[in-house]
Amino acid sequence: MEKTVVLYPGLAVSHFVPMMQLAARLLEHGYAVSVALIDPGVMEDIVFSAVVARVAASMPSVSFHTLPGVEDPPKLTLDIHFIPRYLDLLRRYNERLHDFLSSMHPHAVVVDSLSSEAVVVAKRLGIPCYNLFTCSASILAAFSQLPTLLPEGGASFGELADNPIDLFGLPPMPASHLLAEMLEDPESETYKATMGSVCWIMEANGTLVNTFESLEARGVAALRDPRCVPGRVLPPVYCVGPFVGAIAEAKERHECLVWLDGQPDRSVVFLCFGSIGAESHSKEQLREIAVGLNKSGHSFLWVVQAPADDSGKPLDPSADPDLHALLPDGFMERTSGCGLVVKLWAPQLDVLCHRAIGGRS
Fold first, then answer.
1. This protein's superkingdom (predicted)?
2. Does the annotation count 316 as an active-site position?
3. Mean pLDDT of all residues in 311-337
4. Which fold has domain 255-353?
């Protein structure tokens, strides 16, 4: 009888796709895979919803189950309160996940690092639970140390500003380089929620990291060293990466790939900041990028999302950007011969592999 592994991905394309790549690996090793999903529509993100639908259609061997919705889900907004509200949403789904796992009796559960509080659900049921950490081992080593790094009554990370913080097994780094949520007042809801989420990652039976040991020997060694977090043994770390390649092939090639076909080898600059990075850009920053591209005279491919100027608007990375309103007057016309602006999303791996960017395809 096949052993079933339940996967519980986070509500972001950058977290969902690696989880599905893990699903493919598990299938190759003879496991049955079932995916528990929070309704993708709760994010009001048509790009994420489309990716989920496309992947589900392309992986018939994987069972996809959308958990029953919760009443009055918290409104997710593009401000400093996003993380606590996001975690509140996930917390409210814990009972739904509990009921689903109770009916499945799986061999193991793998939860995304964004959904780390779900570890408590698996523990309650006596099911081995693992975290999938989609970033690097070095970032995980840093995060593991942060909750206990500051002395009681000492300066906060925000107050340390550009002063370096010393992390075991890693180079020193300015405190100001931490996530914005970690620079908040330690008594704030945002800071507590962020650090609490990091602590939950440490409660799993193990952590699967999207890396490989020869790439990050220093970071992996730090995680396996008892001196990393004094007085605490971290969960075992398993390097399962790199996760690369498409999960679901598109029926048609993206327009930007067709455009790249007509460009000389190694001639195009690719600008793509990801959903979180792009949402942090203001209108003014977008215009500065446009001015720089125009003055450079260099060929470019630029993925643009609507800027997050209104901190009260719902989180909607799929909002259709009005390029003519966002970019300088005449920019689209002046650069039409050497540049292409793509709204919302582009197939990053395919673009990076293209000969016009510097790849081999």
1. Eukaryota
2. no
3. 76
4. Rossmann fold (3.40.50)
